[in-house]
Amino acid sequence: MGETIKLTINQQEIECEKDQTILQVAKSVGVDIPTICFHDHCTANALCRICVVEVKGARTLIASCVAKVSDGMVIETHNERINRSRKTIMEMMLSTSDLSQSPQLLDIASAYHADENRFNDAERRNPPIIDDNSMFVRDYEKCILCWRCVQVCAEDAQYAFAINFKGRGYHTQISTFFEKPLTESTCVFCGQCIGVCPTEALKPKRQWLLELGYESDQIMQMTRNERNKKTKKPQTSSAEK
Amino acid sequence: MSELDLLPIQKTINLLAPQGRTALLPLLHEAQDHYGYIPETVAEEIANAINVPLSDVFGVIEFYSLFFKHPIGETIVHVCNDPACAMAGSESIYKLLNQKESFKFGGEVKPRITIEVAACLGLCEHAPAMLVKGQPMISKDLQSWEEIFEPSRKRPQTILGGDVHRLTKNCGKGRRTNLDQYLETGGYVGFKKALSLNPGEVINQVKDSGLVGRGGAAFPTGLKWEGAANAEENTKYLVCNGDEAEPGTFKDRVLMEDDPHLIIEGMLIAAYAIGAQKGYFYIRGEYLTSYKHVIEAVQEVRDAGYLGENIFGSGFSFDIEIRRGAGAYVCGEETALFESIEGKRGFPRVKPPFPTTHGLFGQPTVINNVETLANIPIILSMEIEEYKSIGTEKSPGSKLFCLSGDVKKPGLYEVPFGVTLRHVIEILAGGMRSEHPLQAILIGGAAGAMADPSQLDVRLSFEDLRKEGLPLGSGVITVFDETRDLRDVLLRLANFFAEESCGKCFPCQLGTQRQHEIMKRIAKRKVKSSDINDLEDIIVTMTDSSLCGLGQTAGSAIGSAIKKWPTLFSPQELKNEFVGGQNG
Questions:
Q1: Residue numbers in A near B505 (CB within 8 A)
Q2: B493 and B476 housed in the same domain
Q3: Is residue B565 part of a domain?
Q4: What pLDDT score does A236 carry?
Q5: Which of B35, B63, B91 is a domain's end point?
Q6: A51 within domain boundaries
Q7: Same domain, B298 and B180
Q8: CA of B58: which chain A residue's CA is closest?
């Protein structure tokens, strides 16, 4: 099949096929590199930089989710320099977004001894919850900007293109066209975005209401009203594309 | 606003729509210019015409700071708040403009004036700088504030000096050098020489000259060209990066305003060498005069037959399209600039692949800085030995330096590589502005590093500066006397990066914000003992792990200050220091 190359990961010499990412090769030999924004079914954009590794001869650390292996590469996946970046990124994330419902992220944080109180007087991102449709709520206080929802809504899966970004830098937030309700966007309520969200920033409405303490029958009552509204006014809906 | 008249921009929409998504920024500019903002219905119209999803169009509007989604005032004023302008009093101008009641009410819908704080406007030599409706205005020249509503004042002149005048021979004359004037001074001789050689010979000549990129990264230009020339594809692009926005930098603005033909000739030669048929000249959105002058110059050469099909019967065809940025420093990063031309948010791409194989529209592309391209006609029109007769062995030729801050003559200076920092500051720029002695020098801009008076004898060349741990960057030298509060200077740099981070990768998106928060505290003398450690971790993380050059250098100046003056960041020192006073 593909061309075989030789490289070194954590002092271990291995042979592997070319045209793979460092992350893939590491995984295949049992070396665990943490990832956050990476998802098997989404285009990798190297955003979170938790998967950075040290490649001999490179000036900076390298994002292993996108960097391809090459012959003779000497890679370290865990050392003081790398861990310092991972720990600091986690500490900055903890002081920015609500990660309380993201056990996988909290695991990474504790694995790298990240101190959640390190930047305790930082400006957190805490926009209000957007509850604009009967299917799911958007709680961007939990959003870490991994882009997965935007990608599955676009070319990675659904081609609905309902969401993109507003603002930039630290003050970026996922948004529809002119911040309109999802029901007035090109959203087809396929739910793919909820499926790939790593932090429960996108959450089924029923689950959200249950967490808020409503009883099942109350929720049925509340959502029934919304369903009725919808059948009376079909033109405002998600069906148009 | 439902009755909005779309007719005025419909013509442009119809004209540009066939281009597809790449027409997005030009169309948004048209809408912004016409309506004073981008109304929702217009955004929808544009999206449908070029077949781009609505949410994507919104994302683009939101990314660029010169696009507004709500109506703004009849007059928009940008007040610069970079270190050089702040030292000259831009804060008080901003406050004063905001306090003037008569400015607040105009028509019923629009306020009379909208005041925006802007990162460096590239007018550092005229500090404190303002743009009024996009035109530079020097507050020193104003008799009354009502004058800012009077349109079209004359363009402020930049002090131009130096030891040599290769790149600047047609600059500083108070006019744009037109084609006739340019031809009189040996213009387009280099291009004609290039046409008499084969492309490989042109590339070799550029390689032999030792020219490296002047935009900040210092990559060997000939090598870059060779990479693109060797790429297999037939369609290749040549891009001129005129998105100059590094705080303290204004060299490219002066070249574009005063001598655009020099850059255009450089583009022609580069395109011939790499086999590109199309070029893009991307100009910073705030540089309206540059934009106008480049448009005029391109039209002159097109009319004279230097652009188009089969130029002078050589078989070489090339044309240039001019693009305006829209207020995003990150678009100076080469791949972010491509995204911007393609009609997208200016997110830098993951590299590799590199532009020489996968650049604009995925095609092999050479992207060069304005000053880099301005060197090309000079290299082609003289013997290599002559070109290398000035400068140092490893940094041949001349370099433009932008001097601002506390010097007598802030301005643009062209010097051979290898002169000392002292020479440029004390001899050329006339030394310190007042009796207060020198405290610090920011070299290379916001992404640069701090130097102290003991380093005045460093020679300005890539190799000498590297040894000193100083980046040459884009040629910025901002001078601070001892009355200046360095914590405030560093706060402004931190603010700049927090504003300009694109938000793509986490280290930069989060790190620039945390760095800014800590510097805000330090500038207020509320230092915590953990601050220095926190800053160091943030800076190392941004430098090591960010996706692009913006994040990798966002902590560079502050990091250099921590090394030089740790006491600035230490709570103990503050107890003995009176607030507002000088630094230790």
A1: 46-49
A2: no
A3: yes
A4: 44
A5: B63
A6: yes
A7: yes
A8: A177
What is the pLDDT, as a whole number, of residue B578? 46
For residue B351, give the chain A residue with the closest CA.
Answer: A67
Does B376 lie in the same domain as B327? yes
Question: What pTM was computed for the model?
Answer: 0.95
**What digits encode the pLDDT tens for the residues A32-68?**
999 999 999 999 999 999 999 999 999 999 999 999 9
Taking contacts as CB-CB distances below 8 angstroms, the residues of chain B near A50 are 506
**Burial per residue of B90-115, b for 16 or more beta-carbon CB atoms within 10 angstroms, e otherwise:** bbebbeebeeeeebeeeeeebbebbb
A213: left (phi over 0), alpha (psi -120 to 50) or beta: left
Min Cα–Cα distance to chain A from B60, Å: 8
CB B412 within 8 A of CB B164: no
Helices (H) and strands (E) in chain B, counts: 24, 14
pLDDT at B380: 97
How far B206 CA lies from chain A's nearest CA (Å)?
Answer: 27
CATH of the domain at B505: 1.20.1440.230
Is residue A109 domain-shared with residue A193, that is, in the same domain?
no
Length of chain A: 241
B298 and B428 assigned to the same domain: no
pLDDT tens digits for range B292-309: 999 999 999 999 999 999
In Å, how far is A137's CA from the nearest CA of chain B?
19
DSSP B423: I
Residue A23 sits in a domain whose CATH number is: 3.10.20.740
Radius of gyration (C-alpha) of chain A in whole angstroms: 21
pLDDT band at A238 (very low <50, low <70, confident <90, very high): very low
* Residue B333: domain span: 161-387
pLDDT at B308: 97
Token readout for B66 is: 């010169």
How many structural domains does chain A have? 3
Write down the pLDDT at residue B383.
93
How many CB contacts within 8 angstroms connect chain A with chain B? 150
pLDDT < 70 regions, chain B: 1-3, 101-111, 151-153, 573-584
Per-residue pLDDT, A80? 98
Confidence of residue A12 (pLDDT cuts 50, 70, 90): very high
Question: What's the number of domains chain B is made of?
Answer: 5
Put simply, the answer to whether A169 touches B503 (Cβ < 8 Å) is yes
Q: What is the pLDDT of residue B105?
A: 54
The ipTM value here is 0.94
Domain extent, residue A178, equals 136-228
User: From CA B343, how far away is CA A2, in angstroms rounded?
Assistant: 37
Are B544 and A176 in contact (CB < 8 Å)? no
How many Cβ atoms from other residues are within 10 Å of residue A71's Cβ?
10
Say yes or no: B273 and B381 in one domain: yes
β-strand partners of A130 = A138
